[in-house]
Amino acid sequence: MRVEPPLAIVISNVEAPPAPGEGRQLVPRRTGPPATDATIGKDTAGKTKAPDKAARALAEVTGGLDTRRASPREMTDLSLDLYAAGILSYDDYAVLAFQPELHPDYDRTIGALTGEAARPEGRRDFVHEWDERLQFDLRHRAGNSSAVRQTERILQVLKQLAEPTRIDA
What is the mean pLDDT of residues 95-111? Predict the structure, then answer.
């Protein structure tokens, strides 16, 4: 009996990946007001700082969304933008994008258990929520588990978006 070598399959109509700087343009899908010089670069006291290139680039990706005052629907959109920009891995994107309140059966399932109706447009502090989740994970999971590390990564991204580092010369 003669054994044939496996056939090599050649796919000829596959496009090469886009070169750096090319590819999909990020367009924020949030319905809030667009980021402007007046909304970019405000510190925690509300004082306006002069916008710099990094703040503009970050606002372009995030659409000026404040992660300390966002709705679950906006967080889902933001997570996709962060994934497309290469800021989040696919796994981190999938975890951050999952917002249970967007599910049509939320009120009959989780809402029935908690006694709270879904508020997909309700604003909340996602930095605080992910910090609480990290504290829970540290208490109830192995301190070096992949879930803990994933929660830490997501929390760091949300914190950085809420309070971007400024380097003034």
Answer: 89
> Side chain identity at 94, as an amino acid letter?
A
To which residue do tokens 């447009």 refer?
Answer: 121
Does this model's pTM top 0.85? My answer is: no
* Tokens, residue 101: 């309140």
In this predicted structure, what is the pLDDT of residue 163?
82
How far are the Cα atoms of 25, 63, 156 from residue 37, in angstroms, in the given order? 21, 12, 25
Of 37-41, 93-97, 157-161, the least confident: 37-41
Q: What is the pLDDT of residue 40?
A: 47
3-state per-residue secondary structure call for the chain = CCCCCCCCCCCCCCCCCCCCCCCCCCCCCCCCCCCCCCCCCECCCCCECCCCHHHHHHHHHHCCCCCCCECHHHHHHHHHHHHHCCCCCHHHHHHHHCCHHHCCCCCCCHHHHHCCCCCCCCCECHHHHHHHHHHHHHHHCCCCCHHHHHHHHHHHHHHHHHCCCCCCC
What is the C-alpha separation between 156 and 168, in angstroms, rounded?
22
Q: What are phi and psi of 23, to 5 degrees?
A: 105, -160
